Amino acid sequence: MFKIVDKQELAENIIEYTVDAPDVARHHHAGQFCIIRVHSHCERIPLSIAETDPQAGTITLVVQIAGHSTKELAQLEVGDAILDVVGPLGRPTRIGSPKRAVFVGGGVGVPAGNLMAREMKQAGAQVLGIIGFRTKDLVIYEDKLRAATDELIVTTDDGSYGYHGLVTEPLQQQLEAGESYDLVITVGPVVMMRAVAEVTRPYGIHTIASLNPIMVDGTGMCGACRVTVGGETKFACVDGPEFDAHQVDFPELALRLEMYGDEEIRAHEAGPHECRLEQSLNESG
């Protein structure tokens, strides 16, 4: 069991949890993630890790409340416990030694950039952050990203705060003005990451996308998270979740994310699910 030591509502339906998970906190690196289960009948939820405190033994998770399982998670308060926190999973961000780098984040993908931007700065890079949201009320992690970057641009789709437009627009403007970058890392909705890749492609800038395919076990066994990268099949949970954005088949990824939409609706309406294998093991004693 993993105790919740802090809970903050960052925006509507977006909650930040600080969880006691010392082994994960000690071994985690930027770019890696974890998979949680609220209780034994809950689906597995893959989550980016926004922050770690190895000394306190805690990790910070930012969750958007959307389906049945995240709604159950939202009911937990400080002092309650999450059944499983498995991680760190996936490969760490491959920063290298960039001189100038950019983090581009959208929505609940923004918190993942907190550690990524820090590591880019620690590697000696000058870091520009560009983060985007639908509206001002959904802006999260602005202060943390300002502290982790040399410059931060906040965009909103409706113009209610910061730059009025998409995250790709300031990035395009920077490149057209002659600014050069060695590395761009993007985390967020698939359509946003694909658009970022198309902006940087003509300039030959190494661009990394942190992918969010359907995921079940997180160990490469189920194959649900397979993605096509450079014409080859990869498993995001063990080969990623970060890949060369110019090599990712984004249209296929988008289709796979939509594949189980009807099933998810039916599952949420049906309520908690119990794994049949686990049920069989319980019945056999």
Blueprint of the fold:
Layout: E1 2-11, E2 14-20, H1 22-27, E3 33-37, E4 45-53, E5 58-64, H2 68-74, E6 81-82, E7 84-89, E8 100-106, H3 112-122, E9 126-133, H4 142-148, E10 151-156, E11 163-164, H5 168-176, E12 183-187, H6 190-200, E13 206-210, E14 226-229, E15 232-235, H7 236-239, E16 242-244, H8 250-258, H9 261-270, H10 276-283
Helix pairs in contact: 5-6
What is the CATH class name of the largest domain? Alpha Beta
CATH H level, superfamily name of the largest domain: Nucleotide-binding domain of ferredoxin-NADP reductase (FNR) module
| H and E string | EEHEEEHEEEHEHEEHEHEEEHEHHH
Number of domains: 2
- Name the CATH architecture of the largest domain: 3-Layer(aba) Sandwich
Unreliable runs, pLDDT <50, ≥5 residues?
none
Report the total helices.
10
Question: Helix- and strand-based class?
Answer: alpha/beta
β-sheet strand percentage = 25-35%
**Sheet with the most strands, sense and barrel status:** 7 strands, antiparallel
Q: What is the CATH topology of the largest domain?
A: Rossmann fold
- CA radius of gyration is 19 Å
Side by side, the strands of the main sheet go 6-1-2-5-4-3-7
- Which whole number gives the mean pLDDT? 90
Helix content: 25-40%
N→C terminal distance: 22 Å
Characterize the overall form: globular
How many DSSP-defined strands?
16
